[in-house]
Design goal:
The structure holds 2 protein chains of 2 kinds. By secondary structure, chain A is mostly helical. Helices cover 70% and strands 0% of the residues of chain A. Chain A is built from 13 helices and no strands. In chain A, helix 4 runs antiparallel to helix 5, helix 4 packs parallel to helix 11 and helix 9 runs antiparallel to helix 13. Chain A is globular. Chain B is mainly alpha-helical. Chain B folds into 2 domains: 99 residues, 2-Layer Sandwich (Alpha-Beta Plaits); 76 residues, no CATH class. In chain B, the strands form 2 sheets. Chain B has a 3-stranded antiparallel beta sheet. Chain B has a two-stranded antiparallel ribbon with strand order 1-4. In chain B, a hairpin with a 6-residue loop joins strand 2 and strand 3. In chain B, helix 5 packs across helix 8, helix 7 crosses helix 8 and helix 8 packs antiparallel against helix 9. The longest helix of chain B is centred in the middle third of the chain and has 38 residues. The chains are: A mainly alpha, B mainly alpha. The interface between A and B is medium-sized, with 13 and 14 residues.
Amino acid sequence: MEHWFTDIAQALVNWLMGLGLSAGWADFVLLIVQWLCIVMIVTINVIILIWLERKVSGFIQLRLGPNRLGPYGAFQTIADAIKLLTKEDIIPSRTDKWIFMTAPLFFIVVSVMLYAVIPMGDGMQVVDFNVGLLYFISIGSLSTICLLMAGWGSNNKWSMLGAMRAVAQMISYEIPLAISLLGVVMIAGSLRLSDIVVAQGNIWFVLLQPIAFITYFIAATAELNRGPFDMPEAEQELTAGAYTEYTGMRWALFFLAEYTNLVAVSALCATMFFGGWQGPGLPSWLWIIIKTYLIMLVFMWMKWTFPRIRMDHLMSFSWKILLPVSLANLVLTGFGLEFFKWMGWW
Amino acid sequence: MYGKGLLKGLWITFKHSFEKKDLVVRYPEQMPHLQERFRGSLAFDFEKCIACGICIRNCPNNVLSMETAKDEDSKKKKLMQYTIDLQYCMFCNLCVEDCPTNSLYFTHDFELSQFHRDDIKRVYHRPPELDQQEAAQKTSDQDTQTAADDKKEKQLRAMINAINKNPQKVLARVLDGEEQVEVLAAVLMADEKKLARMAEMMITDKEKAKKVALAFVKKELKEREKGGDQ
């Protein structure tokens, strides 16, 4: 069970080479297959996640959540997806058409690109990049541009306000996010995500870097535009922020991308702090799924517990609390590492 | 300690998510408990309506409309059709409040959605039973009338026959004295019109009949005297 997926990939490459393809071309075909798999994983995950989110929110609010279609309402998301697919695609006449139309596409592409470096099991990585973490953070911050495109293209003041909030928020939280992850990188001594996973063979980094974990978690929530940091959407204030003018499948793509980001960020959290795919008994790909889902449940739990924070509080929290704390953690980690080396414990 | 409130909140929601979810009404299987004065869909009782139009004048959204016709016989306004276009209704209760016969009322039916816009509109046509009932009423009235007439005529004929057959005995009811009765009989036999009048009066008004009979007799006796003189 452990090597199911790697075996399948190897068999595919062998079969292609047997057909007379060169090793390079075989790898290229494998890459395409892997991307398709990622898109499939993303779609299935989003379908499960939306159901889970509604169920969790229902349970927290003493409701039942969806319970009509299928067992425990499991097919509700599928029905919703079909509804969204068949809806009319409305493009308001005075929008900036190209920007308006391409924003959701860019958003989903950027979100899916995050999965390239996430180790989804032992040796199950599309690209084992030597600066994987850097890649993840930089690609992750690209989604800001997509939101700005959506807001600007909509030619609607609320959309623009939402987009501007999103940009301000995401750029502000990008910094503590990156800095909090640096502590882990210092201990692991590598930006390669598979190295970081292997470095947690003895002890999870969440125990060595608890402050980094908490700052990462808060900053990631803000990065994801999830409650209590869902300022860019803020239904009560901005209708739906940058998504106001979007309908049907374009809107669904934004939704899809948001949940895709959620899975990616949770998977990164599992990788960086909870030992990634390592775990006893079960196969590695199952472990990362379990860990990712537990982290996502905590994200949902937080979203449905806390009320939305005010915009100025949000910004001052980032710059005045989160950034100094993560910087202090970085300094502390540096001193600690030197101390350990000096004592000869490392 | 900072963050204590956050943890408390998280603990509360955590506890809630494992509680029994019996606050919700599982609607299609389980109907919600509605209060007595709940305003569901608007309903109309055609038979009670007197077509006064107060509801239509009261309606702020022009939900209600009706068609009336003038009844040929009674010259009254007659309701032909009543329309409730429920899609515009805001359930303000103004029509129900002022209906003098309570023919408009709110029901507890709140499942108002329809697939087509036209289905929301409720058109009440004049039920054919109502017309039939009215017609039946009218004919029965007429029947009783004619029946009464028939009865009268029969009685009259019977009376005339009786007088013809046995004048002394029958006419003794109006007049005393055999002489007078004989005179009256003679008069009546001579004139059919007088006979009919007499018979009718004897049925309807005996006092009048007595007076008239007396008058007849006196007149006859006078004429006879005159004739005797001549």
